[in-house]
Amino acid sequence: MKKDYLTLICCYTVRTFIASPVTRTEGIEDLLSQVSLLPSVRVPGTRDLHLTYLFLGDIGERDVKSASEAVKAISLRKVVSGFSEITAFPDLSNPRVLVLIFDNPGILEIYKRISDLLPGFATRSRNFVPHLTIGRFGRDRINPHIEKLKVPDERVTIDRVCLFRSTLTPSGPIYEEIDSVQLI
User: Fold this and answer.
1) Distance between CA atoms of 183 and 114, rounded to whole angstroms?
2) How many other β-carbons are positioned within 10 Å of the β-carbon of residue 111?
3) Does the pLDDT at position 6 exceed 60?
4) Among 56, 111, 54, 47, CA closest to 79
């Protein structure tokens, strides 16, 4: 019994990612309302939208501590960004995720800094495209004719970088902030 308990303790993991919270503006709310009407597309159920830099996955306590220290070591300027387009990942012919693309290259500097601080995790990441997830496609993946969707004509401020815990539940993910840093 004692051995099983020790195994459980040493193997405990937390599903985590590093991201910046994004405020739901009127234009983003309008877009999410439009997306909710598309066939076979689900809008994010959470009130918290975020720009994900790195998905760390299920990591142990030591890696959580390293990621937390990395987040706190970021010393960059905040970024004000608009949006350039709405598209789908991995591509429009095989859509899985509907996304709103940010248009400020300053966001790439934040990503590069995080990648430099956590090189082991950054190697898992594909080409970084700064975006907000605005919908997830169901199994049917019907082409939703996204050209009818209007890109919000407004700007948001990226002023914090956070380490989040993600707990998956039947009603959708629950995000909890573990640590954060304010951008200057």
Assistant:
1) 13
2) 20
3) no
4) 111
What is the pLDDT, as a whole number, of residue 10? 55
Quick one: pLDDT band at residue 125, thresholds 50, 70, 90?
Answer: low
Alpha-carbon span 84 to 184, nearest angstrom: 25
Taking 3-state DSSP, the helix, strand and coil percentages for the chain, each rounded to the nearest 5, stand at 30, 35, 35
Read off the CATH number of the domain in which 94 is found: 3.90.1140.10
Domain coverage including residue 90: 13-182
Nearest to 43 by CA among 70, 66, 24: 24
Residue (of 108, 15, 109) closest to 67 by Cα position: 15
Q: Are the C-beta atoms of residues 34 and 142 closer than 8 Å to each other? A: no
Q: What is the pLDDT of residues 152-163, one digit of tens each?
A: 999 999 999 999
| Residue 12 amino acid letter | Y
Domain count for the chain: 1
Q: Does this model's pTM top 0.85?
A: yes
**23 conformational bin, left if phi > 0, alpha if psi -120 to 50, beta if neither:** beta
